[in-house]
Amino acid sequence: MSSTHRELRPYAAQPKDSRGRSYQEPGHPYRDCFERDRDRIIHARAFRRLEYKTQVFPNYHGDHFRTRLTHTIEVAQLARTVARALGLNDTLAEAIALAHDIGHPPFGHVGEEVLDGLMQEVGGFEHNRHTLRTIDHLEEKYAGFRGLNLTYEVREGVVKHDARYERFSREEKAEFSPHERASIEAQIIDLVDHIAYNVHDIDDGVEAHILSVPELADDVPVFGQIHHRLRVELPAASEREIFNETVRHLIDRLVTDLIVSTREMIESAAPATLADVRTCPSDLASHSERAEHELKAMQEFLFERLYRSRKVETQMRRCRQILTELFEAYLRDPSLLPRRHRARIPLEGRHTTIGDYVAGMTDRFVVREHERILSGVGAAESPTRYGL
Question: How large is the average pLDDT for residues 359-365?
Fold first, then answer.
């Protein structure tokens, strides 16, 4: 049963009360506005490209590592679970989750750092703002308007995801009212995103043989507690099975904590409507203090042992070089760009046009373009031969 036909809490986001779209469209006979948004995101070219964009390890590093697409699907699944348990609009939560990383460039956070530095002349690069730009402007699917023409509520959820308002223009900030709380459906996206990438980066780190189960058990207390308990409860299970069960139980522990803590926050604030949610002094979606400490310990461990590991740093150093050299090559000679992108330069300027083009690339397309354009870098020096 969809959220359209399910009774929602009075403070949940209701499709009938949506603030609407930038371009008016007639309603659909059997999908509400948030269901249409979800479907438009899934059918977007930018969404499909997430399959070949880095989460931690580049797509071609191995078949079982998370990509930006599989991470997005995992976040959407957790968002639906939490929203439904709380009586919220799970379709809106799913739509925001599916859109939340569309603006990420190739090579993950390293790609964002590189583009931010190269685009300082036009205010830098920030993936949330680029997500908004992609869904509002860069997607080209409809004859009547640019972008996907999503509802205000989905666009607001994208903007207020890990919000860095200083990176948005005055007009953008005015439209989305930074002083106003987002819907609870939007608020939960940050939290389930953190659960997904922390736990699954542990999983991928072990898969890559960078992290070991014994060091996780010793240095990440919550992982160690669960792992030890399961070894006692499941004496016949293999070490691999115990590890997989630990990952599963860790996700369940954190998601359950989020549901319970958020429910308590809602009961304490007692909002009667979504308008009440928007005027609350703080977000209502929340972890307990215990879970916040557990997540912080995981993040610190991953930062030191995985993201700063020699293997990952070697990969990312090469990725920085590829993106920098490719961007600068386009800057020197815009004729290297496809014709339809060159045509945007008089309106958008070189840095913005090139930034849009490079940010939309997948990992493997960046590699191919770098090899094709920079004559000094041939197949013998391809990133796959640098351990990528």
Answer: 94
What average pLDDT does the segment 196-221 reach?
Answer: 96
Q: What are phi and psi of 150, to 5 degrees?
A: -80, 165
CB 162 within 8 A of CB 96: no
Domains of the chain: 3-310 (1.10.3210.10), 311-386 (no CATH)
164: alpha, beta or left? (left if phi > 0; alpha if psi -120 to 50): beta
- DSSP one-letter code for 237: S
What is the C-alpha to C-alpha distance for residues 309 and 34, in angstroms, rounded to an integer? 41
Q: Which amino acid is at 5?
A: H
To which residue do tokens 């160690």 refer?
Answer: 224
pLDDT at 383 over 70: no
Beta bridge partners of 54: 67
pLDDT in tens, 46-89: 999 999 998 877 665 667 788 999 999 999 999 999 999 999 99
CB 271 within 8 A of CB 280: yes
